[in-house]
Structures are given as structure tokens and as C-alpha cells.
Amino acid sequence: MTAFLDACRHTIGAQYVSIDAEQNAPYLIDARRRFTGTACAVVKPGSTEEVAAIVRLCNQFKVPVVPQGGNTGLVLGSVPDDSGTAIVLSLTRLNQIRTIDPVNNTMTVESGCILHNIQQAAEGADRLFPLSLGSEGSCTIGGNLSSNAGGTAVLRYGNARELCLGLEVVTPQGDIWHGLRGLRKDNTGYDLRDLYIGAEGTLGIITAAVIKLFPQPKATRTALLALRSADDALRLLTLAQKKCNAALTGFELMSGFCMTLVSRHFPQMRLSFKEAHAQYVLLELSDSESDEHANTLLENLICDALQQGIVQDAIIATSIAQSKALWTVREHIPLAQAAEGKNIKHDVSLPISVIGDFISETDRLVREAFPGVRIVTFGHLGDGNLHYNIAHPEHDTEDSFLMQQAAINRIVHDSVHSFDGSISAEHGIGALKREEILRYKSEIEMNLMRTIKHALDPLNIMNPGKLIQD
């Protein structure tokens, strides 16, 4: 190992190869601070060529590589295991925006660019990069692509996969694939781009990407709507899609208990509804015409929804500040959960039409097996992504509740499967769900994935133990 580390220091500079325990600690613990791995070093190359050189050394010395961006993932995909044999390869120094092409509506960015910085650069060019996440102030575009991140605007713009046109990738052998093409049509063989997006660093290391930009909307309108049930939320979604079409950008479902938690732990965010409701929808329109047109769309939608008895009450933002305040409530649900105590998280996706039935059935199953649990349901209803989280009963301790995690996961994931859903919508598989997917994916699917992994990474040095067990 000494020879390997000396070679790394010689290649990229000794100051970028750390074996110091205190300095390395933030790179070894997961975002939820529930698992800490170990590594022989944290290595920080400053260019694609340096990434490739480090990977070639890892091949030579048979050292595993754990690529890492902002380390905001929730499935243990960006931290090493506890063997201490791997390096963490931090991509944070690859943080340059290489080019912006407003005519082609593209931007070429390095993988260590913070998502918020990309959004700001797009705005500076009078363009929009629509990927938006709660962690956008610290997550990186490389991590977003490696996990095929979703967020709040998937309904209109799609996942990270749909927002990427080309990639630059360092292969497990240390070669560089120069695939930074800003083309919307390119039928010249297998789509290698889509192979690497969502692969969680197990097939290669994304070092740069060509991402799509969009015109800035002329007007944005936001409303928080109170409803009786998730089924009414689905009725509202159908109505909103019919009346607003492509202007419908965000459609977030939040249960009444979500709002209770936010009000309890962040009382300054308490909303002025006259009474509590079972469900809420945070709805956003992005209009390409004018303020007047956006106002008309929203007013007509809410008027019809009230007349049809779908919506019980509404708060309509009349300023940018009020719109931000409504989104802040949504973004503080995970923070309120954390303040309430440890919880069991599920990031699932379902056919949109069955989400109401799934919530009713799964709530019943979980509460029958574990009386007193508190269910925190919220998510991107417009694209079928639900965060189905479960908090401990008030009479129980957090630690004793977490001992039931496997049993609770089984109930929730089996229910998801029975509704033809997926146990991972936007967080990925990582190490956390690596064994779990074996229960729900067919042997044919798993064998195809293993074949791809073995073909591209025969030494199994790329993020081993993540996504797929070798």
C-alpha cells in the first residue's frame, strides 16, 4: 500500500492524497450519519487526466475505488465499506463550467460542480437548468447523474438522465471516453451515456457532462392546496394536466402529519389554514407567455377544483417571497423528521393511478403489524415518486424501533412490488438496498446486470459492493 500511495502522491501531488484520520472523517460517514467506513486514503485529482492516472494505478495495485461527489446520498453508495482497502476518490476539485451554448441550449460541466452553482450559471445566461433537489447546495452533478437524481421538476423536465446529452467517463481501465456531444439525435450504436447514468460509479467515473438548458419561464405561480385524500390529489393532478398542460411543473403531495411535524419543529412556518386537512398538494406552474396568462391558468384551475369538491382550501402565493416560503415548508419535511427522531425511510415509485390505493393498503398493513407508528408520506406525486417514511411510536424509543427496520421494510417493499412499483425511485441502491433488490428483480435482470459489470470492470475495483453484489 505504501508504494501505491507514493505513486498517487507523485501523480497528483502529496497535498491531494490524505491519510489523516481527522481530515478524512467527513468523506467516510454517510449523509444520515448512521454508517462510517474506512479507507486507505482520500484522493482528490484535479482533472480528468489525473482521475484516469489514479484509476490506472488502482488497476496496477488492485485497489478498489469509491467515487464521491458531495456525499449527500442516502443509500451508502458514496462511502467505503469497513475493510480499509479502498480509496475514496473525491471529485470536488473537478468543478469547472467548461462552456455554455445558449443557442444549442447546453452547458458542459465537470462532475464536481455543485448543482446550485450550475443553476446560477444557467440563470446568468438567461437559461434554466431545472434539476432541483433539497441538497442542491452541496450535491454535485456527477453524483446526480450517477444516481439518476429526480427532484421536484421531473413531471415537466424528467430525471437527470433526460437532462443529459453527453458524458466524459474514465473507464475501470483508466481510459477516457470522450462522449461530450451536445446532440439530441445520435443513433450510432449502443447508448453508452445511459449505461453510466444511474450506475452509481460501478461501471466507470463520470468526470464531465453536457446538460440541457431551457428558456427561463416568463412567470411562475405557486399554490398550496388542502384536500381530503390522496385520491383527491390524483383527481387534482388529472385536472391540472388537462387545464395547464406543459405549464404544470411541480406537483408535491404532503400528508397532514408532514405539516404537523413542520409546524411543531419550525413554528415560524405554520400555515394559516383554518383547520387541519388529511393531504396537501404544493403545485407550481411555469408559464412561457406572461404573468397574466399564468394567473389565469392557476385561477381557473383552483376555481374548477373547488367547484368539483376536489380542493377544500387554498393558499396562493402572490409574490416570489411567498412562493419560496411555501417551497421552504416542503423542503423542511425531512428536517422536521430528523428533529422528531430517527425514522425508517422508503423511496419508492408506483404507477401514478394506484398511489391512493397503495397508501391506504400499506398504512393498514404497517399499523396492524406495528401499532402506534406515525407515517410520514410525501413526494413527487406527478411522477409517481413517494417518500413513505415511518416514525417511531411516541411511547417507544428510537433504538428499539429501528431494530424493526427489516420487518417494516419487508411490509413496505412487498406492498410496493404488489402494486408493480420499484423500491428505489431516485435515491439509488448503493449498499443499503443491494440485497433487497434480489427479492424483487428477476434472475434474468440480475444476470444481465452482472454480465455488464463483469465485462466493463473485470477486476471489480469500481465502487465494489454497491448496487450489485459481485
Tell me about this structure.
With 470 residues, this protein is of the alpha+beta class. It has four domains: 89 residues, Uridine Diphospho-n-acetylenolpyruvylglucosamine Reductase, domain 2 (2-Layer Sandwich), CATH 3.30.43; 119 residues, Uridine Diphospho-n-acetylenolpyruvylglucosamine Reductase, domain 3, CATH 3.30.465.10; 116 residues, Alpha-Beta Plaits; 87 residues, 2-Layer Sandwich (Alpha-Beta Plaits), CATH 3.30.70. The chain is globular, with a radius of gyration of 23 Å. The mean pLDDT is 96.
Please sum up the structure shown.
The protein contains 17 helices and 19 strands. It has 470 residues and is an alpha+beta fold.
Give the mean pLDDT. 96
Ends apart, CA distance between termini: 24 Å
Q: Helical region count?
A: 17
Low-confidence stretches: none
Q: Helical content, roughly?
A: 25-40%
Name the overall outline: globular
Structural class: alpha+beta
CATH class of the largest domain: Alpha Beta
CATH architecture of the largest domain: 2-Layer Sandwich
Number of strands: 19
- Beta-strand residue percentage: 15-25%
Total of domains: 4
CATH topology of the largest domain: Uridine Diphospho-n-acetylenolpyruvylglucosamine Reductase, domain 3
The major β-sheet equals: 8 strands, antiparallel
- Rg from alpha-carbon coordinates: 23 Å
